[in-house]
Amino acid sequence: MQTPPIVSEQDWEAARQELLVREKELTRARDGLAAARRRMPWLAVTRSTSSRAPRARRACSTCSRAAAS
């Protein structure tokens, strides 16, 4: 692996600003993807579905009643 070149402060600042623009674009794209995930339609859960957690083998209807209390 080659090390990056040694540059002047002005060149370094210009490269840093270019990188910040790319980082902001990536952040906005990631935020947009997260928003699209939140807008995904929901799937109705049937009463026969049970938890898959190792020690929590209760039916979802039992879980929802406990959560509503």
Which stretches are poorly predicted, pLDDT < 50 over at least 5 residues?
Answer: none
**Average of the residue pLDDT scores:** 84
Q: Total strand count, please?
A: 0
User: Looking at the structure, what is the overall shape?
Assistant: elongated
Q: Over all CA atoms, what is the radius of gyration? A: 25 Å
Q: What's the multimeric state? A: single chain
Strand content: under 5%
Q: Give the H and E element order.
A: HH
The chain-level structural class is mainly alpha
Treating each run of at least 4 consecutive H or I residues as one helix, how many helices?
2
Main sheet, how many strands, which sense, barrel? none
Distance N to C terminus: 60 Å
What share of residues is helical?
A: 55-70%
Secondary structure topology:
Blueprint: H1 9-38, H2 60-68
What's the quick description here?
It is built from two helices and no strands. The chain is an all-alpha fold and 69 residues long.
